[in-house]
Amino acid sequence: MERIKAIGIDAGSTAIKVVGINEKGNIVFYKVEPTSFQMKPQLEKIIEELPKDVPIGATGYGGDLIGNATITASEIRCHSKGAHLFLKGPGTVIDIGGQDSKVIVIDQEGEVIDFTMNDKCAAGTGRFLETTAWRLKTPVEEMARFAEKADREVQVSSVCAVFAESEVISMVAKGEPMEAVIKGLHRALAKRVASLAQSLNIIPPILLSGGVAQNPVIKSMLEEELKEKIIVPPYPQLMGALGAAIISMESKTKVTNR
Ligand code: ADP
What we know:
The structure is a single chain. This protein is an alpha/beta fold. The protein is built from eight helices and ten strands. It is globular. The two termini are 30 Å apart.
C-alpha cells in the first residue's frame, strides 16, 4: 500500500468513515463501517489497526471520542475542505447523512461563507428512506432501483419520517405500485433537502456528499428541484473524513515548518 501521510476519521451517527491520504491528498485507503451503540470501543479498535506516527484528523458526531487525534475539527469545516478539492473554487456543498443534512456555501479558497443544518428531524436525511426500506425488507441501496422502474410518482404528503413510513405502507397495501410510491418517497426527501438549500443564497456548482449521495435518484431529483447540475464526487460518503485528513496534514506541516 502507498505510504499514508495523514488519516481522517469521520465518526458519524450512522457510519464511521476512515481515510488515509498520500502527500498529494489522494485517498489511498478507506473504510466505512456502521456505527455501533458502543462507539468509543469501536473507535479504539479502528485506531489500533491504523498506522502509527501519522497525524489523525477527527470529525463527526463522535469526533471528540478520538482521544489521540492530532486535531479535531467541525463537520462543516471538514466537509468544506474535502469538497473544495473537487469544486476547486467557490460553490455549494449539500451533504445528506444518516441523521442530518447540511448545506454549506464556500468561497474561492474553500472557506465557509454560510451554512445551514437540519439535525432535528429525520425527514430530509438518509433515515427517511431507511425506515421505509426496513419495513419493505429492501436494502436501502436498492431503493433507487425501484424508483427508477416507476412510470409515475405517488405523492407522499407526510413531512415527518415516521408518518411517511406509515403512509407508504398503507398506500402499498391499498394497491399503489411499490415503485411509484418509492419514487414519491424519494421526491419528498429531495424537496425537503432542496428547501433547506433554498434557505441560503447558494452558488453553483453544487456538490452532493454523504451516504445518500450514492443514490442516483436523489441526485437527479435535486437537480430538478434546484434547476442546477449537481456533481457527485467519487466516494461521496468520505468527504468529511477526507477533509479531516487534509486539515491534520496541513496542521502537521505548519507545526513542522514553525
Ligand atoms: P453520517 O455521517 O450521519 O453517519 P453518512 O454520510 O455516512 O451519515 O450516510 C449514512 C446514510 O447514507 C445512511 O442513512 C444510509 O442509509 C445512507 N446510504 C448509504 N448508502 C446508500 C445508498 N447507496 N443509497 C441510499 N442511501 C445510502
